[in-house]
């Protein structure tokens, strides 16, 4: 609200001289502002684009560099959001508030009591059991590994070598909830993991030629005596050897000897 004549005069002058106040009463003012917003949204360099369109020559390099930095920052933030897969919250409704009602008198009771849970546990372990023929058939059916639906299904029901270390090092007082969510529902697929899968066959071929050995493809192995344990080696060497491939992207430009000297591998030493 303008209270004096000087301010009124300044506001009228500012409308037509590009001052801080905007004239909302001129023709097409609303449409113009909508178009400006659309250009800002669609163009990565809006100020540079406006200036070049209106005046037919490029703006100063400082303005262009400033907008390029802002554009790069937005792209980096978008990539970070895409790579960080948000984990779905389990056992909690997405529409529920942040208050924890687990101790409320109206809280939902567990689906199973301890006796029923024990029975279901024994039934689950019993269903995992396989005889010698079933173990061999499962290994043959899953020889495609990641490209096999059976491989994914059978692997979810067992503790595999990928998570065995985390389970062994878990403290007794630490909750297993997060670890279970990772094992059952994790969909992490980083750039480094894709790099390793892409060059896995190259590594197998290199080892075969370098060591003069034959590496055979294999599927998912289940331990007969403890059917809740399983593993998928990257290859078999003879009747008593397995091959595990490590292709870290950080060593892409190094030979194995150079990578060890640069301490890219903490578990290897040159003899």
UniProtKB/TrEMBL annotation:
<feature type="region of interest" description="Disordered">
    <location>
        <begin position="90"/>
        <end position="112"/>
    </location>
</feature>
<dbReference type="InterPro" id="IPR051703">
    <property type="entry name" value="NF-kappa-B_Signaling_Reg"/>
</dbReference>
<protein>
    <recommendedName>
        <fullName>YqaJ viral recombinase domain-containing protein</fullName>
    </recommendedName>
</protein>
<feature type="domain" description="YqaJ viral recombinase">
    <location>
        <begin position="151"/>
        <end position="256"/>
    </location>
</feature>
<dbReference type="GO" id="GO:0006281">
    <property type="term" value="P:DNA repair"/>
</dbReference>
<dbReference type="InterPro" id="IPR019080">
    <property type="entry name" value="YqaJ_viral_recombinase"/>
</dbReference>
<dbReference type="InterPro" id="IPR011335">
    <property type="entry name" value="Restrct_endonuc-II-like"/>
</dbReference>
<dbReference type="InterPro" id="IPR011604">
    <property type="entry name" value="PDDEXK-like_dom_sf"/>
</dbReference>
<feature type="compositionally biased region" description="Polar residues">
    <location>
        <begin position="93"/>
        <end position="102"/>
    </location>
</feature>
<feature type="compositionally biased region" description="Basic and acidic residues">
    <location>
        <begin position="103"/>
        <end position="112"/>
    </location>
</feature>
<dbReference type="Pfam" id="PF09588">
    <property type="entry name" value="YqaJ"/>
</dbReference>
């Amino acid at each position: 609200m303008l209270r004096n004549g000087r301010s009124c005069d300044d506001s009228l002058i500012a409308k037509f001289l590009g001052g801080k106040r905007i004239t909302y009463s001129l023709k097409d003012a609303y449409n113009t502002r909508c178009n400006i917003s659309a250009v800002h949204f669609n163009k990565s360099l809006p100020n540079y684009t406006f200036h070049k369109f209106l005046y037919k020559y490029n703006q100063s390099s400082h303005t262009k560099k400033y907008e390029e930095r802002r554009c790069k920052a937005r792209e980096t933030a978008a990539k970070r959001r895409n790579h960080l897969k948000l984990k779905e919250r389990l056992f909690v409704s997405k529409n529920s508030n942040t208050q924890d009602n687990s101790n409320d008198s109206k809280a939902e009771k567990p689906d199973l009591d301890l006796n029923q849970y024990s029975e279901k546990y024994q039934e689950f372990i019993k269903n995992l059991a396989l005889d010698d023929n079933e173990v061999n058939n499962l290994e043959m059916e899953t020889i495609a590994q990641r490209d096999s639906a059976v491989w994914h299904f059978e692997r979810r029901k067992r503790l595999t070598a990928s998570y065995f270390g985390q389970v062994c090092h878990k403290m007794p007082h630490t909750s297993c909830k997060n670890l279970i969510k990772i094992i059952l529902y994790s969909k992490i697929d980083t750039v480094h993991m894709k790099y390793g899968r892409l060059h896995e066959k190259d590594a197998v071929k290199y080892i075969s030629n370098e060591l003069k050995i034959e590496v055979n493809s294999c599927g998912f192995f289940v331990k007969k005596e403890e059917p809740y344990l399983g593993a998928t080696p990257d290859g078999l060497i003879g009747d008593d050897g397995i091959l595990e491939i490590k292709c870290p992207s950080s060593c892409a430009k190094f030979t194995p000897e150079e990578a060890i000297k640069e301490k890219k591998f903490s578990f290897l030493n040159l003899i």
